[in-house]
Design goal:
CATH topology of the largest domain in chain A: Tetracycline Repressor, domain 2
Largest interface: A-B, 59 and 58 residues
Number of helices of chain A: 11
CATH architecture of the largest domain in chain A: Orthogonal Bundle
Number of domains of chain A: 2
CATH class of the largest domain in chain A: Mainly Alpha
Number of strands of chain A: 0
Strand content of chain A: under 5%
Oligomer: homodimer
Order of helices and strands of chain A: HHHHHHHHHHH
Chain lengths: ~210, ~210
DNA sequence: GTCTATAACCGGATAGAC
DNA sequence: GTCTATCCGGTTATAGAC
């Protein structure tokens, strides 16, 4: 009992440490020693619990991915209109990414370099894009919205929301010349801007 | 003379090989041996020409960055209206990125992990966002467009254009379930879609 | 489960002959 | 300029005592 609690506690500490290292340095840049140090534990212990760097990484990646996927899909389930959908998606992403802005670059980078990961993950959790485009198509017809391709719209919303976090260093550096204050203001205003911008694009009747 | 031609030729071969390796594996994942192999040259030669991996990387990164920056800024210079601007930016990006889709992830990832690079690059080539937002502001007033923040609009266009390339593996995997044909069709239609979408968002008069 | 020590290997970099 | 051989530090992973 005592042992088990200890075990799970140690394992958790390792995963947490590993997450913060992998997420900031990537798989190739991460060092098992740094993970051990951050977990305040011996390096051998990390191998005792997870055997290889690769296995530890997979555990971390799935965790990180799950955090986002979980919150996104639950917010999709409950959306009954495009307006609600927009509010929910942007809201969810902003609440997750404002806290963990490094997630997009991490996920994108590791997935690009390791496409097998995708196959593995898709099997466990497929995003229900069918349901999503159905909702959009229905709305396009019933509310006579602009006849854009639903998939393009979905990607647009993802792009508008995620890109600024993925490319934060570029936007901060090149567009705001390193001015953190202006950048923060920009991010704060952006959630509402995206909603307004997308609505303005797809609704025929103007709401300014 | 003969030596010099050979030198420049060898150097070029190294840079080309290094580019393809760095761009796909990132700095941490890249191996000098693989670069040497690809350049069909000895590993010691790579060090002879560039001394360190870091120096070779910087040369490659600046080259890659330059390709994009060059074409973007020249297309910005010549744009006299928002319509032209949209056509030029999306057109330029698509022509560059359709050919080199790995650039966004590479640039974003390396810049996020190595912010000092940004400072270095900004000094040499600043993006003239001032001129850009001026044009947008003028257009907003004279053609009575929706009063969106010009900087948000700029980021929107970049996001809509670049994100699908950066996250290509995700979009291909999750939204198109690995169907390359559908994905290619999606990308081909996307350039025009972005133009239509953005115009629809910022123009008050509808052009469907 | 936890630690120390070390194996085994890899990768960047250099020495030195040609 | 080009090659072979090699050094050397660092990194993953394991052996083995406690």
């Amino acid at each position: 009992m005592n042992n088990m609690a200890k075990t799970e506690n140690t394992e958790l500490k390792i995963v947490e440490a590993a997450t913060s290292v992998f997420v900031h340095k990537g798989f190739d840049g991460a060092r098992m020693q740094e993970i051990a140090d951050k977990a305040e534990i011996n390096k051998a212990m990390v191998h005792y619990y997870f055997r290889t760097k690769q296995k530890l990484f997979e555990r971390v990646f799935e965790n990180v991915f799950e955090v986002v996927a979980e919150r996104i899909s639950s917010s999709l389930e409950t959306s009954k209109s495009i307006d609600e959908l927009l509010e929910n998606i942007t809201g969810t992403y902003f609440s997750v990414l404002a806290e963990k802005p490094y997630i997009p670059d991490f996920v994108i980078h590791e997935l690009n370099r390791n496409p097998e990961l995708i196959v593995h993950i898709i099997k466990t959790r497929g995003i229900n894009k069918a349901k999503l485009s159905e909702l959009i198509i229905t709305e396009i017809q019933s509310r006579s919205l602009k006849p854009f391709d639903p998939l393009q719209i979905i990607v647009n919303v993802l792009a508008l929301t995620i890109f600024p976090f993925a490319a934060s260093s570029i936007i901060k550096g090149f567009i705001f010349e390193g001015d953190t204050e202006k950048y923060d203001k920009f991010v704060n205003e952006r959630r509402q801007h995206i909603i307004d911008f997308v609505k303005s694009a797809i609704f025929k009747d103007q709401k300014t």
